[in-house]
Amino acid sequence: MGAETGSVEAGGDRFSQDPAFAVHEGGKLAVRPTRPIETREDLALTYTPGVARVSSAIAAEPALARRFTWAPRVVAVVSDGTAVLGLGDIGPAAALPVMEGKACLFSEFAGLSSVPVVLSTTDVDTIVETVVAIAPSFGGINLEDISAPRCFEIEERLRARLDIPVMHDDQHGTAIVVLAALRNAARVTGRGLGDLRVVVAGAGAAGIACTKILLEAGVGDIAVADSRGVLHLGREDLNPVKRWVAEHTNRAGYAGTMTGALEGADVYLGLSGGSVPEAAIASMAPGCIVFSLANPIPEVDPEMAARYAAVVATGRSDLPNQINNVLAFPGVFRGAIDAGATAITERMKLAAAEAIAGVVGEDLAPGHVVPSPLDRRVATAVAEAVAACARDEGVTR
Question: Which residues bind (S)-malate (predicted)?
Fold first, then answer.
């Protein structure tokens, strides 16, 4: 025990050498009041007895909570720590720095407050009931880093139970930005979405969501592969989500490997990790598009991909065309909350993707098919597009 304690105490020096630890020292969030309490009158209005009049009014007319509490403009960032970044199942305590970071991004890019909520359970029923129970404190639920396939059921059930925006960002944030980038990549290579044959490597949360939004957007044909090969209706090992994908993709009924499916394909979309051999990329169609999004090591070496592809995108901040969820989720929630939306619909996600793609504008180039994650115009454009779509669809209060 003595040696263990010593190593922890000595850890300060070790951690001080890494600037990331300095940023996270003591956490990255704080809750601060928006009203000063300097006089007895301030105290009486902020708390009792003044607060009782507000609470009584809300009890009589619950809709007043939107005006007289913080809840409508606060997002809960909820995780069970089972699929954190590329680290996997590391548990709720280790996931908390990531959720704090997410809350910082909500504040910085969308002006929304958010609260990290990490749960010490992986049971679907318990997670759903817990989030439903705390939902009155929030105006939106951002699900984060929950492993597939549980994440699909959790999101679906929460969307059915709650009348506030719910979105699993690992699914839909990624999908929105991928669609935005692919719209512009198709434009820069002189094609439309309907002309593209896409191979998606990875049938987890992001892979499934990307496939669905690409289908909604009118992509010509898609083949989705998991670790056992391309999904097709002849496979007997498919869960319900993968079976749905098999029913709506892979027109040719191809039953081979992912690398085999790449022959003649227009787009590779990597969301799985691992590595792809150069010969497979070389077999793709001329002027192909490679989105290799595993972090920190892309599935396709970017330098190698550039020898064959007209457009290359990764998830890395040190390379061109970074597919970063921060381009989507702050504006999506801001727009949904501003409009008083009761849900985030498929059309709202498509509107968000169009808005992100539109920010690139005249600067469109093979090395610039998505805006910089630090481009402050993006969240505003996304929020406005999402809010307008919500009002048009009639999903607002």
Answer: 295, 324
